[in-house]
Structure formats: C-alpha cells, structure tokens
Design goal:
heterodimer; A: alpha+beta; Ubiquitin-like (UB roll); Fumarate Reductase Iron-sulfur Protein, Chain B, domain 2; 2 domains; five-stranded mixed beta sheet; two-stranded antiparallel sheet; 7 strands; 34% helix; 14% strand; elongated; B: alpha+beta; FAD/NAD(P)-binding domain; Flavocytochrome C3, Chain A, domain 1; Methane Monooxygenase Hydroxylase, Chain G, domain 1; 3 domains; five-stranded parallel beta sheet; 17 helices; 35% helix
C-alpha cells in the first residue's frame, strides 16, 4: 500500500545490507509528510508499509533504537551524510538541508553492520573495560557517604557523565577505523571522568598506562571532529587535552620511579 | 562438579536488574544477565527528576523515614503493602550514600553537600538529583559496577537476547528460561537455579507513552501465561506533563514543577495570544488555586486529572488538548539545573523553555501493577525478614520480580522520584532473598534432564515458526496502533463501564485478527518484525487483564478513576486485584485479596483540596 496521492511525500533513500559480509544496496521509500516528524517515526511508517517507490514489496528496515528521546544512545546513524541520533533528527529541519526533499539514511561506517542501519558497537563497551571505567568501591554495604565534592567539580563530571556511548564521535574521527586499535574520544573522555572522582582516581595510573599503550591517546590526530558531532555537547577535546597532560606527567613519573610494583 | 555450581538468571538490565546482579555477584553466586539492549541503554536512563530519601537537612526540618513511608502509602491510596514500603523508606538514605560512593554526580551545594529539590506529594525537600537526567546517571553508576563484575567473570551478559518463556518443572518451580538471540534468531534454553524478572513496565500497550520501545510488558505477560499471577494490572500511571509526539510522548520531568514551574491555562476559552502576552490576572493557575497546600506538586494522578478536566471543559490552549508548564520566571541557576530536560523540549519543539512556556499534556508513564509477589513480614510488620526467600518471589517458586515489573511498592499511584528508589531497593534488599532460595535448593538446575529444557525450547520454536508462516491479511504494526488507541481512549485517565466494555470487545477482536497475520519479514536473521509481533500477541493478553481489573474495580482509587464510581470504597476494594490466567479459556480470572494495613490506617486522600 502506498501513501494517498493527495499528500506530499518525503522520499527516503536507505542503504540496506541483509547481514554481515553481504553486499549493500539502496532502496527508496516514500513517507507522507506531517509536521513534527522525526526519522524514527518515518522508519516506523516504513515498517508498517514496506513497499519501495518502485512498488516492490520489501521488508521493514532494521535499525537500533530504544528511548527515542536522545538519552539511551542506541539510534545513531548517518543521516544526509552526517552522523547523529535518528530520534532527534526532525524532518522539518532535514528538509531544509536537502532542498530536493530526499533524506538519505546509512549505517555508521566505523562499526560492523549487523543488518541495514544496525551496527555492532561492542568495541565501545570493551573500551570501557580497558580503561577500568568504574569507581573501585569496597562493596555495597553501608559505609556512609562518598567523598565531598565542589559544585564546580560536579559540573565538569556531570558534563562528561552524559556520554551515552552513541558512537557519533568515533564515526566522525579520521583516526578511528574499522579494524584498527584506536580507543577514541569516548573512552578518553571517560578516563578523565573517573580520574576526576575522589575514589575513582585510585585507578588513574592504570588508566593512563592504557592510554599510553597501543591505540592510546598518541593516535589522536587532533582533527577535533568529535566535539562537533557530540549530541550531548561533551567537551571531548578538553578531555583529550586533559588526559594528554596527565599522561605526560605520568610518563615522567614512570621514567624516574620505574614500572609499577605489583 | 563444576557444572552444578548454582547460577541466577536476571532478565532485564535496568536499575533493578543491575542492582540485583551486583548484590548477587558480591555474595559469590554467578549471574547470567539477559537484556534486549546493551544494559547501558535500558529504559531506566529516561528517568529525569531524582530519587527520594530522608536526608540530614530534611530531618532537621522535621522529616523522617516514617514520613517518607507515610507519603508513599498516602500517595498510593493505601493499596501498597506496608512492610516492604517501610523497608524501602528506611534503606533510602543508605542507597543514596552507596550511589554517592559509586560516583554518581549528584548536584552539590556551595559547601559540597548533596543538593536537594522538592517533588510531588511531599512538603519537604527530599529528592536527590543529578541535573535533570538522574536516571541516566544512576544507571551508569550501576552499569559500571556490573561491568567490574563482568570483568571478574561473576556476571555474564547476554545482550540482544530476548526472554521468551520461563522453564517450569514438574513440581511447578522455575528452573531457567528460554531466550532468543535477536541477531542470529537462535532459540535456546538457559538453566538457572532462580530467575529474577526485572523487565520494567508495559507502556507500549497504550501505543504512545513515555516508555522506551522495549517496554511492551511482553516478558511479564509471558510469565503470566506460564502461571505467574499479575497484581493490580489496572493501575497505570499517566504522567501529567509530557510533550506529545508522532512516535512517542516525551517526558517533561516533575522536577520542572519541583524547581518552581507553574501549570496554567488562559482564563478566557480559546485565547489565541502567545503565552508571554497573557497578563498574570488572565491566567488560571488551577492546581495552585485548588490545592493551596501542595500547589503544582500534588501527586501525579491528581495533577493529570485536573489537566485532563481543564481541557475537557474547553480551557486547554486554543481549546485543544494542551496546557502551559511555565518555567520562564525561574532564576538562571535554577534553569541550569533543568538544562537536561529543557534541551529535550527545545530539540523536539523548537521552543526554548527559558523564554516560552512549554505546552504539555498527560501521557502513560508507569506501571504500578505487575507480577504478583509476596514477602515475609517481621512479627511487628515493620519491614520484611531480610534475606527470606519469599521476599519478592512470585507465586511460581524460584521466579522473582524486581523493579517496575513488581507490583509491590506503589499501590494505586506512584510518587515522583520513588521509582528509581524501588528498583534499586529491590535489587539490593531482595537479591539476597534469591541467593537464600538457591542455597536452600537440593537439586541444582544443572542436574535436571535436558528433556525438560528441550520441551520448552521446542514450544517457542513452534510459536515463532507459526508467526513466520502465518499467511493472513492483518498487519501487526496496524493492530498495535489500534490497541494503543483503544486502550488510551477507554482505559487511562477516566474509565467507565461502557467504555471498558467497548475496549474489551475491541481487544478480543484484535486477538482474533492477530491469528490471521502476515509478517512482512519472514527471514531468520535479525528479524525485528518477529520480535515485535510476538510481543504484540502478549500485549493483547496483558491488555485483557488490565481491562478486566479496571472493569471489576468499581471505585476510584489513585490512578484508577471511574466516572461511574467516583469515590474510594475501602470496604469492598481495599484489596489487591489478582489476575490469574485461565489456560483452558484463554482469559483472565480476577480475584481480590485484602491488603492489610498494620502500620498506617487509611484516611481521606484530599491533599488539602479547597472545598474537598
């Protein structure tokens, strides 16, 4: 079933792939225009009416999403050539970007495709293990409050803690590539986050060791693309600079004190 | 024998599931954690406003854990079970301390203390917060601790795995689950000596809600069809302030009102002036006028009904179904604390709430009901016996329910900023109960015959194949839209007998149509249509239980408002609604079970309404 002829349609060109290692191909769908649509509601429409512009029966486009309010980080994709969240990508804005009225959707290119627009971002979660992204508490028993903290320090930590592991910064990064080792802005910024916490900084040396290893901070080419695409406006370049400074001091200490005693 | 080492399965990796996983791993048992999404993306991230607990400042102003307990029971219209709520209120300050130690960036005062804000249903500042994305921040802290256990091998994650069915043995005890890999579509059995459901709410039954797309209630509905009971299924919270959208309704946190935001409509019907040009005297701050004591911070069920009635009476903005939530007058420092939610409003509507009053309307938000659970009270009813295996176990031995899917804590209406608390409390306080249950078992799941597991795996294979091969005409996405519309129209803010009957007939019809479906994707790789359609079938079953409960509860209590029975009726209905699935008839059977009130006696619930 196609949309009624009397409504204005928005044309979607979508890059599809049936599974890992399969060839990709493009399909085009029309979605009837309504005010206040976002990309997700258009994909939902296509799921209900999976028929291409050519009238060919297809399957619902597969994509990853959950909260639809830009806080879970799941629905990242490349929309009109720019990486972003599909829930907060509003059609009224997108149509201004593309005067022809066509919106293109592609999966991120820096992660393996599972199917269609869904990619495998386990590399990002593994990076959190590498940098020991946690506060090493003694356990869950009642041991009183955590360390006191200034409002200023909380403000910086909060801005870093809003990272939702969406992958925009890595997609935009020229150094982060499918198959290479670079850890990327997301994990570097998380290392800074934990090093800023009274108890979290106990593991700072280990985090900096990881940052100085292969795929660490020296692989950053300072392109500064990451900070421009972050949907949460996390000061990623400040984090990279901060971890760079911490790593330098750490390296000097290591030089004079030798490797850590276990 | 290594293979008989006991394991606990947790389904769901939101706050309740993660808190349980951390506590159980700490106790030495191994955990298998299942989630349809990477756990860090669970729906708990959507919680915004904060988490309640008695604290140093409020205590010196006269607040106490007892008052938190009393507020929760009064807010819930006395349908809550009191001993677990008593424990929850008492453990709350310790939970805040623990989250603080885990590194949650709670907002700070100038002296470095944890900052506090006001929230609905209380006259004291007892809500701790991290900006306006508190749920996300709490989730991340627990996600980090769970990852620490994962690295140590005590927690094994199965992400992008969907729970399909509980494995129940000949004696009726739960001994594992059947789950499906959402990428490869492989269906397989997992052995577990106890299974904890922490699968959240069921907002998707109402079509558009504030919930995430995985909050279908499907997992709970599967347990219900396998013999677990539902408690209070008709109790659904409609949040007063959300931004209506095409794909979902986006929450606008109660913290906006907690920080001083005001709800109003133009006094003149159909006033078309922009809000900023409507003078103060021509605005009707109806919540403040009707409830001078609590003002904009009356509990959610009350605020929702008042907004709904104002719009019904033609007083909505431009005569439509919206009212103003105004934060334009707040000082800059306060606006900064709300930046997280203002940013969402601006992104989705184009208006900056710092300068223009927000337009909002109520939306389905939280499931007070859920799987029926029990507990072992202390002799004086002040709390539960810690670590008792019965705590938060369903009627199926070995099957537990934690968090939103557990019906236990919020009665007829949940207070704002109590949800995060109840989820974490369940995991931390009742996790040890599941551990105790496992330690009391004589025959480990690892030693049970493979045939038991194969039987259930086969059952799920067959069901999936039937859906894939169904060659009818109905479109599952269209049926879901119809289910959402009919449930929203007849079973949300205002309910009455005829409407409920209409809805029940419609849902029966949808169930018939469900049997004549056609999936547009019949492949066996990452088939999201199959997962959605299976959940739709379970949503329809759950909807029947919601409607049956709503129809038989001929009174008004908390979020359940009947226009044909507008008063609370304690003599007949100070009772839990228990829904049992009758397999032969494929129907819910509703029973009522008295709710004891050992610590707090029911009283009129007016919140100081003028002329109440």
């Amino acid at each position: 079933m196609t949309a009624p002829a009397n409504t204005k349609n928005i044309r979607f060109k979508i890059k599809r792939q049936d599974g890992p290692g399969k060839a990709s191909y493009w399909q085009t769908f029309d979605v009837p225009y309504k005010p206040n649509l976002n990309v997700i509601s258009c994909l939902q429409y296509i799921a209900e009416h999976p028929v291409t512009v050519a009238g060919e029966k297809s399957t619902p486009v597969v994509w990853d999403c959950n909260c639809l309010e830009e806080v879970c980080g799941a629905c990242t994709m490349v929309i009109n050539g720019k990486v972003r969240q599909s829930c907060s990508a509003l059609l009224d804005e997108l149509l201004k970007e593309t005067p022809g009225g066509m919106v293109t959707l592609e999966p991120m290119t820096k992660f393996p495709v599972v199917r269609d627009l869904w990619v495998d971002r386990s590399r990002m979660f593994n990076a959190l293990k590498t940098i020991q992204a946690w506060v090493p508490i003694d356990g869950t028993h009642d041991l009183g409050e955590g360390p006191k903290e200034s409002a200023e320090n909380q403000d910086v930590r909060y801005s870093l803690s809003r990272c939702m592991t969406c992958g925009c910064c890595l997609e935009a990064c020229p150094q982060f590539l499918l198959g290479n080792q670079f850890i990327g802005a997301q994990a570097i910024s998380q290392a800074r986050y934990f090093n800023l916490h009274g108890t979290g900084k106990v593991l700072a040396d280990q985090r900096l060791d990881a940052m100085m290893g292969p795929g660490g901070i020296t692989d950053c080419g300072n392109a500064q693309n990451c900070v421009k695409v972050c949907p949460k406006e996390i000061p990623l370049t400040e984090s990279i600079a901060a971890i760079g400074r911490q790593a330098t001091v750490h390296a000097v200490k290591r030089f004079f004190n030798g490797p850590p005693r276990k | 024998m290594a293979s008989s080492k006991p394991r606990i399965i947790i389904v769901g990796g939101g706050l309740a599931g993660l808190a349980g996983a951390i506590k159980i791993a700490e106790s030495g048992l191994d955990v298998d954690l299942f989630s349809m999404v990477p756990v860090k993306r669970s729906h708990s991230v959507c919680a915004q406003g904060g988490i309640n607990a008695c604290n140093k400042v409020a205590r010196q102003q006269g607040y106490s854990e007892w008052m938190h307990f009393d507020e929760t029971v009064y807010g819930g219209d006395f349908l809550n079970h009191q001993p677990p709520v008593y424990d929850m209120a008492n453990m709350a300050p310790k939970i805040i301390d623990l989250l603080d130690r885990m590194g949650v960036p709670f907002n700070r005062t100038s002296e470095g203390e944890r900052d506090l804000r006001l929230f609905g249903g209380s006259l004291f500042k007892r809500t701790h917060f991290a900006g306006a994305t508190t749920g996300q921040q709490l989730m991340y802290a627990l996600d980090e601790q769970a990852r620490r256990w994962e690295v140590q091998g005590k927690v094994t994650k199965y992400e992008f795995w969907e729970f399909l069915w509980p494995v129940v043995d000949e004696q009726g005890a739960c001994r594992g689950i059947i789950a499906q890999d959402m990428r490869t579509m492989q269906i397989r059995a997992f052995r577990g000596d106890a299974v904890i459901m922490a699968t959240g709410g069921n907002g998707l039954i109402f079509g558009k809600s504030t919930n995430s797309v995985i909050c279908t209630g499907g997992a709970a509905a599967r347990c219900y069809q396998a013999g677990a009971w539902l408690g209070n299924p008709e109790f659904i919270q409609v949040h007063p302030t959300a931004i209506p959208g095409e794909d979902k309704c986006r929450l606008m946190s109660e913290s906006a009102r907690g920080e001083g935001g005001r709800v109003w409509v133009p006094r003149k019907k159909g006033d078309t002036r922009p809000p900023g040009q409507i003078p103060e005297a021509e605005r009707w701050y109806f919540l403040e006028e009707k409830y001078p004591k609590y003002g904009n911070l009356v509990p959610r069920d009350i605020a929702t009904r008042e907004i709904f009635f104002a719009c019904r009476d033609g007083l909505g903005i431009g005569g439509g179904r919206m009212v103003y939530l105004d934060c334009t007058h707040l000082p800059d420092a306060t606006k900064h604390k709300l930046a997280g939610i203002f940013e969402i409003y601006e992104k989705f509507t184009g208006d900056d709430p710092c300068h223009v009053a927000m337009k909002i309307f109520p939306a389905v938000h939280y499931t007070m009901g859920g799987l029926y659970t029990s507990f072992e009270p202390k002799p004086d009813f002040k709390g539960m016996v810690p670590g008792h295996p019965k705590n938060m176990m369903t009627n199926v031995p070995g099957l537990y329910a934690f968090g939103e899917v557990n019906y236990q804590y919020h009665g007829g209406n949940r207070l704002g900023a109590n949800a995060l608390l109840s989820c974490i409390f369940d995991g931390l306080f009742c996790g040890p109960s599941a551990v105790q249950y496992v330690q009391d078992q004589k025959s480990p799941a690892a030693d049970l015959p493979e045939s038991l597991y194969q039987k259930f795996a086969q059952q799920e294979e067959t069901k999936a194949r039937k859906l894939i091969e169904s060659n009818g005409t109905f479109n599952p996405y269209t049926l879901h839209r119809q289910l959402g519309d009919v449930m929203t129209d007849y079973c949300t803010v205002v309910r009455e007998e005829n409407g409920l009957r209409t809805a029940a007939e419609h849902v029966d019809r949808l169930r018939d149509q469900f049997r004549a479906l056609k999936l547009s994707d019949t492949g066996m790789w990452t088939n999201q249509s199959l997962s959605f359609t299976r959940a739709l079938g379970d949503m329809l079953v759950y909807a029947q239980a919601i409607l049956a409960g709503a129809s038989l509860r001929k009174e008004s209590r908390g979020a359940h408002y009947r226009s044909d029975f507008t008063e609370r009726n304690d003599a007949q209905f100070l009772k839990t609604t228990v829904a049992k699935y009758d397999k032969a008839k494929d129907r819910p059977v509703i029973e009522f079970e008295a709710v004891p009130t050992p610590l707090i006696q029911p009283r009129a619930r007016t919140y100081g309404k003028v002329d109440a």
